[in-house]
Amino acid sequence: MEKWKLKGFDTFEGEFYSIEGEYGSQQEAELAADECLKRFEQQQPTESSGGQSKYGIQDRVYVIYPDGTKYRYFPPAFAKCEVILKESNGSVIVKKDGGSTESVFTDLTDVKEGDRGRVVEVDGRLMFVREPHSG
């Protein structure tokens, strides 16, 4: 069975570092990543580090796919979703897996209807991010 892993990123030093553990699924790896972010928050409080914001220096956590590709983990603000409409103002309308819709921002220039992803909170804004390897 192929294993999922985590890597940390020290934003102050600008270097990746290993995080111990191997996981049997993306869900298990993301649960572990969530625990890492909680630990980072205790060790490097948002008040003094800037947290996970764009300019924060709190360490980051990346989920590593079995094929070696990685993505930065953000805890989801709500369930997985699908883009149903791209608006001209930099936002998209997403349909949550539960059926309700919401307008959120995105910094992806190539987002299109049908893209699957999740909504995360970044710098106090809800942002759509594409699911890596979706489909």
Q: What does this entry look like structurally?
A:
There is one protein chain. Helix content is 16%, strand content 44%. It is built from 2 helices and 9 strands. The strands form 2 sheets. The protein has a 5-stranded antiparallel β-sheet with strand order 7-6-5-8-9, with no helix packed on it. Strands 2-1-3-4 form a 4-stranded antiparallel β-sheet, with helices on one face. A hairpin with a 4-residue loop joins β6 and β7. The two termini are 21 Å apart. The mean pLDDT is 81.
Structural class: alpha+beta
Percent of residues in helices comes to 10-25%
**Structural shape:** globular
Helix tally equals 2
Low-confidence runs: none
Offer a quick outline of the entry.
The protein is α+β, with helices and mostly antiparallel strands and 135 residues long. Helices cover 16% and strands 44% of the residues.
Compile the SSE list and pairings.
Layout: E1 4-10, E2 15-23, H1 26-43, H2 46-49, E3 60-64, E4 70-72, E5 76-86, E6 91-96, E7 101-105, E8 116-122, E9 125-130
